[in-house]
Amino acid sequence: MGCMGLKAGVYGGGGYAGVELIRLLGGHPEIGAISVASRGYAGHGIREVYPQLAVDGEYVAPEEIEAGDLDVAFVAYGHGESAGAVKELLREGAHLVIDLSADFRLPDEGLYGEWYGEHPAPELLVEAHYGLPEVFGAAVGRLVSNPGCYPTAAILALAPVVRRIDGIRSVTINALSGVSGAGAKPSVKTHFVSVNESANAYGAPRHRHTPEIETMLRRVGEVPEVTFVPHLIPITRGELETIVVDVQDVPEAEEVLGWYAEDYEGWAFVEAREEYPHVAHVANTNRCRLSAAVDDRAGKLLLFSAVDNLLKGASGAAVQNMNLALGYEEDLGLEHLK
Amino acid sequence: MGCMGLKAGVYGGGGYAGVELIRLLGGHPEIGAISVASRGYAGHGIREVYPQLAVDGEYVAPEEIEAGDLDVAFVAYGHGESAGAVKELLREGAHLVIDLSADFRLPDEGLYGEWYGEHPAPELLVEAHYGLPEVFGAAVGRLVSNPGCYPTAAILALAPVVRRIDGIRSVTINALSGVSGAGAKPSVKTHFVSVNESANAYGAPRHRHTPEIETMLRRVGEVPEVTFVPHLIPITRGELETIVVDVQDVPEAEEVLGWYAEDYEGWAFVEAREEYPHVAHVANTNRCRLSAAVDDRAGKLLLFSAVDNLLKGASGAAVQNMNLALGYEEDLGLEHLK
Amino acid sequence: MGCMGLKAGVYGGGGYAGVELIRLLGGHPEIGAISVASRGYAGHGIREVYPQLAVDGEYVAPEEIEAGDLDVAFVAYGHGESAGAVKELLREGAHLVIDLSADFRLPDEGLYGEWYGEHPAPELLVEAHYGLPEVFGAAVGRLVSNPGCYPTAAILALAPVVRRIDGIRSVTINALSGVSGAGAKPSVKTHFVSVNESANAYGAPRHRHTPEIETMLRRVGEVPEVTFVPHLIPITRGELETIVVDVQDVPEAEEVLGWYAEDYEGWAFVEAREEYPHVAHVANTNRCRLSAAVDDRAGKLLLFSAVDNLLKGASGAAVQNMNLALGYEEDLGLEHLK
Amino acid sequence: MGCMGLKAGVYGGGGYAGVELIRLLGGHPEIGAISVASRGYAGHGIREVYPQLAVDGEYVAPEEIEAGDLDVAFVAYGHGESAGAVKELLREGAHLVIDLSADFRLPDEGLYGEWYGEHPAPELLVEAHYGLPEVFGAAVGRLVSNPGCYPTAAILALAPVVRRIDGIRSVTINALSGVSGAGAKPSVKTHFVSVNESANAYGAPRHRHTPEIETMLRRVGEVPEVTFVPHLIPITRGELETIVVDVQDVPEAEEVLGWYAEDYEGWAFVEAREEYPHVAHVANTNRCRLSAAVDDRAGKLLLFSAVDNLLKGASGAAVQNMNLALGYEEDLGLEHLK
Fold this sequence. Notes:
Four copies of one chain form a homotetramer.
Chain A: E1 6-11, H1 16-26, E2 31-37, H2 46-49, E3 72-75, H3 82-92, E4 97-99, H4 109-115, E5 129-130, H5 133-136, E6 143-145, H6 149-164, E7 168-177, H7 192-195, E8 200-201, H8 209-217, E9 226-232, E10 239-247, H9 253-263, E11 270-272, E12 288-295, E13 300-307, H10 311-325
Parallel strand pairs in A: 1-2, 1-3, 3-4, 4-6, 5-6, 7-9, 11-12
Antiparallel strand pairs in A: 7-10, 8-9, 10-13, 12-13
Helix pairs in contact in A: 1-10, 6-8
């Protein structure tokens, strides 16, 4: 972490998204210095907590970072906590804030309230850019809201379809997630013995990523309420979504693959293939891999989408957003994750 | 494997279903002798091939077993191979044959032909009893067709609903399966490195368990073509199905749980609970665990069903069927698997 | 949990050893009633905490159990906490207490103090029977100290050797353990993401099972200080020990297998085989599987020993000890675990 | 895979080492073109076989590559097959050959014969450089023999000790390996169901990496015959070795850590730390992480060493060797694996 180049701050650097940010920013050619804040680990060496990181330096308390000096700040707090921190960072003069929480993903204060509770900084909602560049373009402005991991996979698979097809009658998203998606905090649910040799649905039918998926898809077309059922499976990282779309006139699978090719041409990290994506095809990368099939008998369109929840689903996307917001190539420092 | 009690034969004893049959029959109080045939392993000690089995004895060639002496024969061959063996066993005088293959699951020769090819013994289709006793009653006659693992979980979850609800518009089954479901034969797909830390959809949209699910459900009510998407996940055993039912008037979840309680009362191995089933709740047991939820926003009924694919989904059910066909309690020799 | 038969109490029923005890005692033909105490879970349904258990009933507070009525009490508390509870149970008139903690494994108060701290009930040390029946005979008296999981595997492998060979120069035990050995309490160390796709040594060179192994082996022969290095590997249950013995005159492997056959003849759960034991050969059983090999070049004897840490390494052995102490066959209620 | 820069050939590109080589060379700034040969997969697209690779191009037959044009050739065949291919490549004029097989690791034809059989190209043994640069220096000449995965971890841990300590009485290496170490070929041993939830010793006491460890260590000091016991554990990649050294005068652990710091100063990929290495600390990196402890009671020195078997234990080291042999920095193209 030298002294030249951009100054980056990571807030909430003790969680899994933080670990990935530290790793990615540490290898980014334009980043010159990284300060990593963690309320829980302040004063501890980063490697003491995460020995797999080959970095020196200590976690500091958030207030020890001079926010006004930051070229870019990443906030990886939980929802509800993040908005306040973002507000403060912007007030203190941070040039660019990328928020990895859910706080700025729902542009509507009322909708946020319905799913999360009262919004701590509603006045900022209007300027938050939803950072899924392959669908909504490169980030602009000083505040980027990094998408949720499940919505990333879902919207990348569905947007090209929703854009082109009218009369979608129902959308069912069956998602599988690795355990890192449940966070670093130890609990009965994340105990190895609870997870290993098991699998279970959770959070359905009201998982909080549901309104994010609906809201963002409705920016590109009409879509009914989505049924979203996430499952926990015994892998560390990666997500796979199998999406069933019920529509009057089902397109051919090849046609859908063509839409993907068209919409994502020129983007480095999204690719559709005939073969169904495996989690292993995207794990430890910033990729999203898509595929499509048609169930002729039942008249349904099947979409498949896989991402690494910690990279394209979180920290990889955050760095990609930073690159775009600062005018770099989207894959700068992420070349080995393509 | 003493000399008193019933004589059992296991054909295809070298696969995973065979291993479980050997284990279960070895501990069954009414079974006196077990002969285990395997074309691949004939002449090899059973423990040499599966050291986790605490049994003596050798695999023999199928023709070394005197079929006419058998009180019960279990056939665990692949589809297409099984029907001929079953026919021969019945001809030679085996009293009861329980077929674990797909050969007698579809009662209609034409339908079988559409999904599997020409049926090798269509004349037997009419007398095969579909061995899902909790829905279709105790096995009668000399030929039991043991249900597929996925259909077991699906039909147990859906039958009580299909029986009571008209106007089901669509049924989508998302299934997760452990790798033992792919069989004991080594392949790139079952290599540890291929499966571990991954997950993928496969077989969709035309997995062969689809018509079995539809056909059997239509015995209890009306149901449209089913969309069935199985996935492979990195666990050894167990299956979890998340079923989304689109229906005009969605019942309450409690109502559905009540239907389950009503329909499965008195049956030892099927139980519905409010909590969503985890694979770990049924692994290494002969249970099926069910649950239900309602997605009010999207107007969908969600059903959850978990079984151990090698037990309730195969060999446990086969022994349960044997018990019922021979007039024993369904859980005889399976008490520790409740 | 009916009303006839023996009355059993389980103290510390909320941990993994407790879960196995509940399962095993629930299926034991001589146990009529089970009371399960847990300080953390008192008032909660047992199935609420462990849905994989097919039992009714609630956890109670320890003091709600009438200890004087118990035919047998199992204590599965942590070391230091257990001794006081055992003392109280015996004082109140429990007929038989089986302690699964480390508190009565070291017969010497001074040695206990050196590794664990001050002993809470040293006066009971003299009457505690070390419950490894295959080496030290069936339990007698009112207090059985259930061996540690690692010592179980180690002593079963080493005792026949130590008994017959003089001049052992060094003993190195490399042990691999599943994560259930680390207990049910969530922590960073047992988080799925910490354990999965990893492995590490821990506790060496002063793991507390070391003096237990040495002390008990010295009851059968001479043995130097043992080097014991346990490792955590990403499996739920099971332990494998690879033991390297440095001795002047290395015996043949066949000879050692013969010693095992001789010493363990008639015992249901211990078996030596030429093939090296895999954890999968013993998981979910009460077995110990042994093997031996010789490194001619380096002049070393290699011993291999595998157990399921929760069964033969804890609760299975506890029930086996109960059986023997009460005059039953050692495998009563454990037949399916052979 | 553009046209500028060095021309690289990979022979045996269908195995796991090949996959890693393709990935690493594809991201290497000095490599301009890569030809990948595979006898089994010739004519198939690389991504068709390994969809996780983001490369275009097809596997070709070995003879389709013009060896004389190659700046560097990597040979990842099995032992016995490799030597002939290497000989032919050198004859045809390949500038640098890096052999990942065992064929050139034992410098002595007789020793090779004892463990592997007759050597196919003994005349080349004298010029093969053993490519463990941190111990034996940067590769020189036209033939580099890439070390075995187990020897890499063992020699890096032991060399600094063997160099400084006389009178080592015994060395016992207990190694744990991920399943990728067993190769890509499907077999019962690598079937997910065989490996998952299990662990086992194998290959001992005569695993072929034993003489490689002994021979190379004896280049730096005196060492007796080594006892080497590898185990298979259910992880995809990574190796952990726990090494017990019996020596008259046991040094302090801090002293050993100091030797490591001294000997590996300036090398990018080897690092000793007080904390014991976890496989997760090195997986997906080119690192070797070391630690040391002392068992005072038994008078033993404990060494711990972890590598990723496919990177520092194979393909990462091969690229590192290429870098050094061609005069680049050792970490060129490997920066993200530090």
